[in-house]
Amino acid sequence: MRVLMVHSFHHPRGGDTTYTRDLTRLLADAGDEVIPLAMRHPDNDPSIWARHFPSWVDLRANDDPVARGRAALRMLWSAEAARACRRLVSEARPDIAHIQHVHRHLTPSVLRPLRRAGVPVVWTVHDYELICPSAHLYARGAACERCADGRYRHAVETRCKWGSRGASLAVAAEKRLHRWLGVWAMVDRFLCPSAHLARTLVRFGVPADRVQHLENFLDLTHRPPGDSPGEGWLYAGRLSEEKGVQVAIEAARRLPGVPLYIYGDGPMRNTLERQAADLPWVRFLGHRPRPELAARLAAVRAVVVPSLWPENFPYAVLEAQAAARAVVASDIGGIPEQITHGRDGLLFPPGDAEALARAVRHLLTDPARARQLGAAARTRVESRLQPADHLRRLRRVYAEVAR
After folding, report:
1. Would you say domain 2-217+386-401 falls under CATH 3.40.1190.20?
2. What is the C-alpha to C-alpha distance for residues 33 and 98, in angstroms, rounded to an integer?
3. 3-state secondary structure of 110
4. Residue 58: is its pLDDT beyond 90?
5. Quick check: 350 and 246 in contact, CB under 8 A?
6. d(CA 254, CA 352)
7. C-beta of residue 7 within 8 angstroms of C-beta of residue 36
């Protein structure tokens, strides 16, 4: 089978690119040919198909208002990306297209040449981009579903995109345009890693017969479990408001002397560093090589996922579970589908720093309990998220939409 794998980015960036790269490898190892479609970028992985990639667009870097205006228009519907997709489809002749991420970069314009060529389309949904201008169902410090009516004026009122009225107006216009153009009808199947996300899409109006729950997978071949309960605790991910790192720092204030290792970067880093200025046991380590992060992951007592937005199926949870670490995570979104409280991890109310501190303190004072939860988490991943099982289910979806 020839699979057109569509993602705006052809280099590592986050959970959705992790899944895309892992899936590409899984399909290739099974004998399929995977053809990427992405934007040109200096960090891209090499590909013989790169000559067809459309140009890179950076939506925030250019201070020239004219250039930013052009970028904003391209963000809505990229004719260049549509032409690139048409050329690639004409040459590669894929049997199926699998969309991973296109909003505001490639844009859903790539769907039209796929439909005209009769290529079936499957779309794995990694967040709320299809239905929410902010992509997080989060605004003004709380979960938000005010745009469920499809009018999107609330996005402008709350400035939910980067705190900017202009950016919020642009993404609200994007969502209205895509609804008007019937983007959802151009997709044969939307795959959702969490049942929570699947229910949310349907609640926002995506046809239920096009939505299907399919969990992600994790290859454990090169992910040995940690062999000790470890010391300290860790956060790894983007440093932005909806990720709740500020809640972890407030919990760390209640755990004096216990190291909290914070990996990652983002728009809130300076604010978070000021918040933790009087807490020398909170350490900001930025982006680090994956082997270094993996080593630290195997050496801590617990991993925290303190999200304030309704996460879909965060890789931060999966990677900690694979390392047999006890995970303490917010009871929100799809996270409770990954963790059964008290059996293979601990859940706490989103935003409750005191509850988070209690959970971490419990694991610090009871290493046997931390080890038990971590081992159960590893077993959960081993039993439910095998690559071969995921591939079998995905092939079934491919076959269904290709009929």
Report:
1. no
2. 13
3. helix
4. no
5. no
6. 12
7. yes
pLDDT at residue number 57: 78
Residue with tokens 């293979």: 344
DSSP string, 147-215: GGGS--HHHHHHTTTTT-HHHHHHHHHHHHHHHHHTGGGG-SEEEESSHHHHHHHHHTT--GGGEEE--
**Is the separation of the CB atoms in 266 and 239 below 8 Å?**
yes
Residues with Cβ within 8 Å of residue 54, at least 6 apart in sequence: 39, 40, 78, 80, 81, 83, 84, 106
Q: Which amino acid is at 7?
A: H
Q: Are 4 and 119 in contact (CB under 8 A)?
A: yes
- CATH 3.40.50.2000 positions along the chain are 2-217+386-401, 233-384
- Mean pLDDT across the chain: 93
Alpha-helical regions (H) of 182-324: 195-203, 245-253, 269-275, 290-297, 315-322
Q: How far apart are CA 314 and CA 245, in angstroms?
A: 15
With beta carbons less than 8 A apart as the criterion, state whether 229 and 371 touch: yes
**Domain 233-384 CATH class label:** alpha beta
> pLDDT, tens digit, for every residue of 139-155?
888 888 988 888 888 88
The structure's pTM equals: 0.93
pLDDT at 63: 65
* H helix or E strand, kind and range, residue 362: helix 353-365
The answer, yes or no, to whether residue 387 has pLDDT greater than 90, is yes
Which pLDDT band, with edges at 50, 70 and 90, does 59 fall under?
Answer: low
Sequence-distant (≥ 6) Cβ neighbours of residue 146 within 8 angstroms: 139, 154, 158
How far apart are the C-alpha atoms of 156 and 168, rounded to whole Å?
A: 5
List, for residues 176-190, the tens digit of each pLDDT value.
999 999 999 999 999
d(CA 95, CA 92) in angstroms, rounded, equals 9
For residue 13, name the pLDDT band (cuts at 50, 70, 90): confident
How many residues are present in the chain?
A: 403
Among 19, 16, 23, residue whose Cα is nearest residue 4: 23
Q: Which residue has the tokens 């937005």?
A: 309
What is the per-residue pLDDT for 374?
96
Q: Give the phi and the psi of residue 298 in degrees, each rounded to 5.
A: -75, -10
Give the integer Cα–Cα distance in Å for 278 and 276. 6
